[in-house]
Design goal:
CATH architecture of the largest domain: Alpha-Beta Complex
Strand content: 25-35%
Number of helices: 14
Shape: globular
Distance between the termini: 20 Å
Radius of gyration: 25 Å
Number of domains: 3
Largest sheet: 5 strands, mixed
Bound molecules: heme C
Length: about 500
């Protein structure tokens, strides 16, 4: 589908500008606000599913991961617990100062000072505890992440053990390493009930944790916790505190709610408390990213089915892949570099696919012999899902060979939907055509819809809004807000085709 998207993408950008000028005066203020909100750190709307604009929650789309072992910053997911600190804090990074407590000689240390200590780089997966929450049936609260609240990056900084040594070592009674983030809270808010402060066992902190200031060779972006964040390799995201302003060797775990009751694995219906296991080490997990990660149909023939597999602290021993939803398995090839026990491995299998529907699933086994379960039990907050079945990817192999399909990429003269309809039905799905090109103006000019590779930002993102048939029909027949009515240009059959196309991934 990629070549096709370039056919309309460039013209549509121009059209988008025109449409913007035309419609700006009538746009609802919420749509205007969305236009002005550019994503930070070079991120593009089409690589992400936005679960929450504030505090930001961006999920990497399956097809945006690529096939290499490192997730670029531009594609890296974002999950903030609170509105992030102002960008002034990265204006002069080296002056960022961290208070170190609980050591024999406690005090402040700036990033400039940290850089004088011995530097190290590790590759590590960062994964939100709630990654995979969308696959639970009990409707747990929180962003419904699919597979993309995870990424693997190279992190450069200094080992926490070096920092503690710089202050003559942790006091003997210390059992935890506690990091506090620099998010500011409005006056009157109880810091311990909402502030981000997490503790991990001191032993883990001393052995593996780092204070990092570079990500994939770039200064750590503000959105990812720069100037300095804690990295606890192999542990779930929440432990990797961003914008660290205090680091303490402590006798007890943090008293903050996010530590005491939050991020604990517990049965559905139970409130969290310190007796429930904290979201620490990430168990073995894998998923397939492609081909067809964007929902596009594929062509028959040879395909490389690829994905990622990891297990906190352990690394992966092998991965099995099935193209029939788990009936028959074959052993995948681990390719690319092994970047250590906390990084993910890229894997692939080569398969010949004939037309039809396939459910691609993967099942990883780590170096300790743990294998992903088929199902993962529900838990109150929808944490830690690593069941292989739910992470599967459905792909459709079209009945036509690639050469014939690509005929439809020939640009055609501008057409109205009425004249274009019969030709379209032979060559490409009618709904897709209507959405991307043959409506005036085309839906893709204003809307984002992954299945159409559309990135419009004037109207709502339809992957996020997920309107049902009734809502789409009403919008098309009557218009809504700044969106024109299409009543006099679409037949009932065309409206139905659009509805099928928009709702098919829901
Ligand atoms: C010129 C820009 C533009 C074009 C072109 C456009 N839309 Fe929209 N659309 C919008 C805006 C803006 C909204 C939000 C309106 C509001 O809520 O005030 C919207 C809303 C919608 C909604 C949600 C309605 C609701 O109930 O909230 C759907 C569904 C939708 N559009 C589908 C389409 C389809 C299908 C097409 C193509 C036939 C299309 N749009 C073309 C701008 C556009």
């Amino acid at each position: 589908m990629k070549p096709q998207s370039t056919v309309w993408r460039n013209p549509s950008r121009r059209t988008a500008l025109k449409a913007l000028a035309l419609f700006a005066s009538t746009l609802p203020t919420s749509a205007l606000a969305a236009l002005k909100t550019l994503l930070p750190a070079g991120k593009q709307q089409h690589d992400f599913i936005t679960h929450n604009p504030q505090p930001l929650a961006l999920e990497t789309s399956r097809d945006a991961f690529g096939q290499g072992p490192i997730t670029a910053i531009a594609q890296f997911f974002v999950r903030n617990n609170l509105p992030m600190p102002e960008s002034e804090i990265v204006a002069d990074r080296d002056r960022w100062s961290i208070q170190v407590k609980g050591c024999e000689t406690s005090g402040q240390i700036t990033l400039a000072d940290l850089k004088t200590l011995e530097t190290t780089t590790v590759a590590s997966v960062l994964q939100c505890s709630g990654n995979g929450r969308a696959f639970f049936n009990h409707n747990p609260a929180g962003s419904p992440w699919g597979v993309g609240a995870a990424g693997c990056a190279l992190w450069t900084g200094v080992k926490v053990s070096e920092v503690l040594s710089h202050f003559a070592g942790a006091k003997p009674q210390a059992r935890f390493l506690t990091a506090t983030g620099a998010e500011s809270l409005p006056a009157g808010i109880d810091v311990a009930s909402v502030g981000v402060e997490r503790s991990v066992p001191l032993e883990k902190g001393v052995q593996d944790a780092l204070l990092v200031w570079e990500m994939n060779g770039e200064p750590l972006p503000l959105i990812h916790g720069g100037p300095v964040r804690l990295l606890v390799p192999g542990y779930f995201g929440v432990n990797n505190v961003k914008w660290v302003k205090t680091l303490a060797a402590a006798t007890d775990e943090s008293v903050h709610a996010i530590q005491q009751s939050g991020y604990r694995l517990r049965p559905v219906g139970q409130a969290g408390n310190a007796s429930h296991p904290s979201m620490y080490r990430m168990p073995v997990k894998s998923w397939i990213n492609g081909p067809g990660g964007n929902g596009d149909r594929l062509y028959p023939g040879r395909q490389q089915v690829f994905g990622v597999a990891f297990s906190g602290e352990r690394g992966v021993q092998h991965v099995d892949v099935s193209i029939d939803g788990g009936k028959r398995w074959q052993s995948a090839t681990l390719y690319g570099p092994d970047l250590g026990p906390n990084a993910w491995r890229t894997f692939q299998i080569s398969v010949d696919l004939t037309p039809g529907q396939y459910t691609l699933v993967s099942r990883a086994t780590d170096t300790a012999g743990d294998t992903q379960p088929e199902h993962f039990s529900a838990n109150q907050r929808g944490y830690g899902h690593n069941g292989w079945r739910d992470h599967g990817l459905s792909v459709q192999i079209s009945t036509q060979p690639q050469a014939v399909e690509s005929d439809r990429l020939e640009p055609s003269a501008p057409v109205t939907s009425q004249t274009a309809a019969p030709a379209m039905s032979q060559k490409s799905p009618l709904g897709m055509r209507l959405f991307t090109r043959s409506t005036q103006p085309a839906c893709a000019t204003c809307h984002t819809l992954e299945a159409a590779d559309a990135q419009g930002v004037i109207g709502p993102n339809l992957d996020v809004l997920r309107p049902n048939a009734q809502r789409i029909r009403a919008a098309l027949e009557q218009g809504v807000g700044a969106m024109p009515s299409y009543a006099n240009q679409l037949s009932n059959a065309e409206i139905n085709a659009l509805i099928r196309f928009i709702t098919r991934t829901q």
